[in-house]
Amino acid sequence: GGRAVKIIEDLWQVGGEGFTAPGDAAVYMVRFRHQAALIDAGCGPGHRQLVDNVSACLPPGTDITRLLLTHCHFDHTGGAAAIRDHYGCRITAHAKDAVYLEAGDSDVTAASWYGARMLPLRIDEKITSDRETIPFGSGEVIAYHCPGHSPGSLVYTAVLAGQTVLFGQDIHGPLHPSLLSDRSQYRNSLKFLLSLEADILCEGHFGAYKGSENVQNFIRQYLY
Questions:
Q1: What is the pLDDT of residues 83-128, one digit of tens each?
Q2: d(CA 209, CA 103)
Q3: Fewer beta carbons below 10 Å: N end or C end of the chain?
Q4: Around 3, how many Cα atoms within 13 Å sit in the side-chain half-sphere?
Q5: How far apart, in whole angstroms, are the C-alpha atoms of residue 198 and residue 127?
Q6: Helical packing angle, 47-57 and 80-87, nearest 10°
Q7: Start-to-end Cα distance in the chain
Q8: Helix, strand, coil shares, percent, the chain, to 5
Protein backbone atom coordinates (compact mmCIF):
# COMPACT_ATOMS: atom_id res chain seq x y z
CA GLY A 1 0.00 0.00 0.00
CA GLY A 2 1.05 3.59 -0.56
CA ARG A 3 1.89 6.13 2.07
CA ALA A 4 1.03 9.73 1.28
CA VAL A 5 -0.11 12.76 3.23
CA LYS A 6 -2.77 15.16 2.00
CA ILE A 7 -1.69 18.70 2.90
CA ILE A 8 -4.77 20.46 1.54
CA GLU A 9 -7.18 19.66 -1.30
CA ASP A 10 -5.19 18.81 -4.48
CA LEU A 11 -1.81 18.89 -2.67
CA TRP A 12 0.04 15.88 -1.25
CA GLN A 13 3.45 14.80 -0.05
CA VAL A 14 4.15 11.48 -1.76
CA GLY A 15 7.90 11.02 -1.24
CA GLY A 16 10.77 11.75 1.10
CA GLU A 17 12.38 10.34 4.23
CA GLY A 18 9.79 8.04 5.82
CA PHE A 19 7.67 8.02 2.65
CA THR A 20 9.92 6.38 0.07
CA ALA A 21 13.65 5.69 0.60
CA PRO A 22 16.13 6.97 3.20
CA GLY A 23 18.01 9.98 1.83
CA ASP A 24 15.15 11.08 -0.43
CA ALA A 25 14.22 14.72 -0.32
CA ALA A 26 10.51 15.52 -0.20
CA VAL A 27 8.38 14.82 -3.28
CA TYR A 28 5.13 16.76 -3.59
CA MET A 29 2.22 16.39 -5.96
CA VAL A 30 -0.06 19.23 -7.02
CA ARG A 31 -3.19 18.75 -9.12
CA PHE A 32 -5.20 21.05 -11.36
CA ARG A 33 -8.29 19.07 -12.40
CA HIS A 34 -7.23 16.38 -14.87
CA GLN A 35 -3.48 17.03 -14.73
CA ALA A 36 -0.95 16.79 -11.92
CA ALA A 37 2.72 17.62 -11.45
CA LEU A 38 5.35 16.10 -9.20
CA ILE A 39 7.85 18.43 -7.58
CA ASP A 40 11.22 16.65 -7.29
CA ALA A 41 12.00 12.97 -7.65
CA GLY A 42 14.01 11.55 -4.74
CA CYS A 43 17.20 9.52 -5.27
CA GLY A 44 15.62 6.71 -7.31
CA PRO A 45 15.76 3.50 -5.20
CA GLY A 46 12.32 4.32 -3.75
CA HIS A 47 10.70 4.57 -7.20
CA ARG A 48 8.22 1.69 -6.77
CA GLN A 49 7.08 2.99 -3.40
CA LEU A 50 6.71 6.48 -4.88
CA VAL A 51 4.48 5.11 -7.66
CA ASP A 52 2.37 3.29 -5.03
CA ASN A 53 2.09 6.48 -2.97
CA VAL A 54 1.02 8.49 -6.03
CA SER A 55 -1.55 5.85 -7.01
CA ALA A 56 -2.97 5.90 -3.48
CA CYS A 57 -4.03 9.53 -3.76
CA LEU A 58 -4.18 10.45 -7.45
CA PRO A 59 -7.85 10.81 -8.41
CA PRO A 60 -8.97 8.61 -11.33
CA GLY A 61 -8.59 10.20 -14.76
CA THR A 62 -5.69 12.42 -13.66
CA ASP A 63 -2.44 12.33 -15.65
CA ILE A 64 0.97 13.27 -14.29
CA THR A 65 2.22 15.50 -17.09
CA ARG A 66 5.12 17.31 -15.44
CA LEU A 67 8.07 16.72 -13.15
CA LEU A 68 9.27 20.07 -11.84
CA LEU A 69 12.79 19.93 -10.42
CA THR A 70 13.77 22.55 -7.85
CA HIS A 71 17.54 22.02 -8.31
CA CYS A 72 20.12 19.54 -9.50
CA HIS A 73 21.02 17.75 -6.26
CA PHE A 74 20.84 13.97 -6.34
CA ASP A 75 18.35 13.57 -3.47
CA HIS A 76 15.90 15.59 -5.63
CA THR A 77 16.82 14.33 -9.12
CA GLY A 78 18.26 10.78 -8.96
CA GLY A 79 14.80 9.31 -9.55
CA ALA A 80 13.79 11.70 -12.33
CA ALA A 81 14.48 9.46 -15.35
CA ALA A 82 12.46 6.58 -13.86
CA ILE A 83 9.52 8.93 -13.21
CA ARG A 84 9.59 10.23 -16.80
CA ASP A 85 9.80 6.66 -18.14
CA HIS A 86 6.85 5.60 -15.98
CA TYR A 87 4.45 8.51 -16.50
CA GLY A 88 5.65 9.93 -19.81
CA CYS A 89 5.87 13.39 -18.23
CA ARG A 90 8.13 16.31 -19.15
CA ILE A 91 11.03 17.32 -16.90
CA THR A 92 11.55 21.02 -16.12
CA ALA A 93 14.65 22.55 -14.51
CA HIS A 94 16.53 25.83 -14.61
CA ALA A 95 19.12 26.02 -17.38
CA LYS A 96 21.91 26.80 -14.86
CA ASP A 97 21.36 23.48 -13.10
CA ALA A 98 20.35 21.55 -16.24
CA VAL A 99 23.99 21.84 -17.38
CA TYR A 100 25.15 19.59 -14.50
CA LEU A 101 22.22 17.18 -14.85
CA GLU A 102 22.74 16.68 -18.58
CA ALA A 103 26.49 16.26 -18.10
CA GLY A 104 25.98 13.69 -15.33
CA ASP A 105 28.18 15.71 -12.95
CA SER A 106 28.33 13.70 -9.71
CA ASP A 107 30.10 16.46 -7.76
CA VAL A 108 27.92 19.51 -8.39
CA THR A 109 24.80 17.32 -8.10
CA ALA A 110 26.19 15.91 -4.80
CA ALA A 111 25.57 12.34 -6.03
CA SER A 112 29.04 11.53 -4.72
CA TRP A 113 27.85 12.51 -1.20
CA TYR A 114 25.38 9.65 -1.46
CA GLY A 115 27.95 7.19 -2.77
CA ALA A 116 26.12 7.30 -6.09
CA ARG A 117 26.69 8.42 -9.67
CA MET A 118 24.53 10.95 -11.48
CA LEU A 119 23.67 9.50 -14.87
CA PRO A 120 23.20 12.14 -17.58
CA LEU A 121 19.59 13.35 -17.41
CA ARG A 122 17.95 15.03 -20.38
CA ILE A 123 15.90 18.09 -19.37
CA ASP A 124 12.85 18.65 -21.59
CA GLU A 125 12.16 22.21 -20.58
CA LYS A 126 14.90 24.60 -19.43
CA ILE A 127 13.91 27.77 -17.64
CA THR A 128 16.15 30.71 -18.43
CA SER A 129 14.23 33.68 -17.01
CA ASP A 130 13.83 34.83 -13.41
CA ARG A 131 10.09 34.15 -13.49
CA GLU A 132 8.20 31.80 -15.75
CA THR A 133 4.57 30.68 -15.77
CA ILE A 134 3.96 26.98 -16.39
CA PRO A 135 0.33 26.27 -17.30
CA PHE A 136 -1.17 22.83 -16.90
CA GLY A 137 -4.59 21.36 -16.32
CA SER A 138 -6.94 24.14 -15.23
CA GLY A 139 -4.22 26.10 -13.42
CA GLU A 140 -0.60 27.15 -13.42
CA VAL A 141 2.58 27.03 -11.43
CA ILE A 142 5.02 29.94 -11.38
CA ALA A 143 8.75 29.17 -11.33
CA TYR A 144 11.16 31.68 -9.79
CA HIS A 145 14.94 31.50 -10.11
CA CYS A 146 16.29 31.63 -6.52
CA PRO A 147 20.02 30.88 -6.72
CA GLY A 148 22.32 30.38 -3.75
CA HIS A 149 22.02 26.76 -2.65
CA SER A 150 22.79 25.87 -6.28
CA PRO A 151 23.29 28.13 -9.34
CA GLY A 152 19.93 27.18 -10.86
CA SER A 153 17.77 26.67 -7.77
CA LEU A 154 14.07 27.24 -8.48
CA VAL A 155 11.06 27.63 -6.25
CA TYR A 156 7.51 27.15 -7.50
CA THR A 157 4.26 28.71 -6.35
CA ALA A 158 0.70 27.57 -6.94
CA VAL A 159 -2.61 28.99 -5.73
CA LEU A 160 -4.94 26.31 -4.40
CA ALA A 161 -8.30 27.19 -2.82
CA GLY A 162 -7.16 30.79 -2.46
CA GLN A 163 -3.97 29.85 -0.63
CA THR A 164 -0.48 30.50 -2.00
CA VAL A 165 1.62 27.35 -1.80
CA LEU A 166 5.41 27.77 -1.99
CA PHE A 167 7.51 24.78 -3.03
CA GLY A 168 10.62 26.25 -1.46
CA GLN A 169 12.61 23.03 -1.14
CA ASP A 170 16.12 23.51 0.28
CA ILE A 171 15.58 26.79 2.10
CA HIS A 172 17.82 25.45 4.89
CA GLY A 173 20.81 24.98 2.56
CA PRO A 174 23.45 23.65 2.98
CA LEU A 175 25.91 25.96 1.26
CA HIS A 176 29.09 24.27 0.07
CA PRO A 177 31.85 25.15 -2.44
CA SER A 178 31.54 21.83 -4.31
CA LEU A 179 27.84 22.63 -4.85
CA LEU A 180 28.78 26.05 -6.28
CA SER A 181 26.71 27.68 -3.53
CA ASP A 182 26.74 31.46 -3.15
CA ARG A 183 25.92 32.98 0.24
CA SER A 184 24.95 36.47 -0.91
CA GLN A 185 22.64 35.08 -3.62
CA TYR A 186 21.20 32.71 -1.03
CA ARG A 187 20.40 35.57 1.37
CA ASN A 188 18.78 37.58 -1.44
CA SER A 189 16.72 34.54 -2.42
CA LEU A 190 15.50 34.07 1.16
CA LYS A 191 14.42 37.72 1.29
CA PHE A 192 12.57 37.22 -1.99
CA LEU A 193 10.81 34.15 -0.58
CA LEU A 194 9.60 36.22 2.38
CA SER A 195 8.13 38.73 -0.08
CA LEU A 196 5.98 36.00 -1.68
CA GLU A 197 3.94 35.87 1.56
CA ALA A 198 3.03 32.21 1.11
CA ASP A 199 0.31 30.59 3.22
CA ILE A 200 1.82 27.10 2.95
CA LEU A 201 5.47 26.13 2.57
CA CYS A 202 6.41 22.72 1.15
CA GLU A 203 10.05 22.35 2.21
CA GLY A 204 12.58 19.93 0.77
CA HIS A 205 13.36 18.01 3.96
CA PHE A 206 11.05 19.28 6.70
CA GLY A 207 7.63 18.72 5.15
CA ALA A 208 4.79 21.24 5.01
CA TYR A 209 4.30 24.35 7.14
CA LYS A 210 0.83 25.90 7.26
CA GLY A 211 -0.01 29.48 8.12
CA SER A 212 1.82 32.54 6.82
CA GLU A 213 3.43 33.26 10.21
CA ASN A 214 4.89 29.74 10.44
CA VAL A 215 6.16 30.03 6.88
CA GLN A 216 7.81 33.41 7.51
CA ASN A 217 9.40 32.17 10.75
CA PHE A 218 10.82 29.10 9.05
CA ILE A 219 12.43 31.14 6.27
CA ARG A 220 13.62 33.93 8.56
CA GLN A 221 15.62 31.61 10.83
CA TYR A 222 18.07 30.95 7.97
CA LEU A 223 18.72 34.64 7.37
CA TYR A 224 20.51 35.09 10.69
A1: 999 999 999 999 999 999 999 999 999 999 999 999 999 999 999 9
A2: 35
A3: C
A4: 11
A5: 22
A6: 50
A7: 42
A8: 25, 30, 40
